[in-house]
Specification:
124 residues; alpha+beta
Length: 124
């Protein structure tokens, strides 16, 4: 998989509440992106083998997004936070994680811990 061939801003967008919808399967392997479409910013990149379950439990990024939205609201800044999924991700864990790492390095997503040295820890 070529990380340069994946543009998260052309993928189909989903609301951040997607994980609350009822589903009848655990989902499938994918790379997912948390985007602020108003700022054209990739906030977070992740990978999973169970797309319908990954966000149901505790996830630090949920808190970051909530605080991010709150700050935008407080200062009357536009924001449009959505999820996008890339479904052609490898089903094997290691290649999918390698692709995730390459995408995190490419997009420099501030909510991924790999980029905290660059941006600082979000809301920490």
């Amino acid at each position: 998989c070529d990380p340069d061939a994946i543009d998260p801003f052309v993928l189909h967008l989903h609301p951040m509440s997607f994980y609350r919808l009822p589903v009848d399967s655990p989902g499938q392997a994918c790379i997912y992106f948390v985007l602020d479409c108003a700022a054209q910013l990739v906030l977070y990149i992740g990978e999973t083998c169970q797309s319908n379950r990954r966000w149901k439990g505790t996830h630090d990024c949920k808190r970051y997004i909530e605080l991010y939205r709150d700050l935008h609201y407080r200062y009357q800044l536009d924001t449009a936070v959505n999820m996008a999924f890339w479904w052609d991700a490898p089903t094997q864990t290691r290649p999918r994680q390698q692709l995730e790492s390459a995408l995190i390095a490419k997009w420099r997503s501030p909510f991924n811990k790999e980029n905290w040295e660059l941006w600082g820890r979000p809301f920490g």
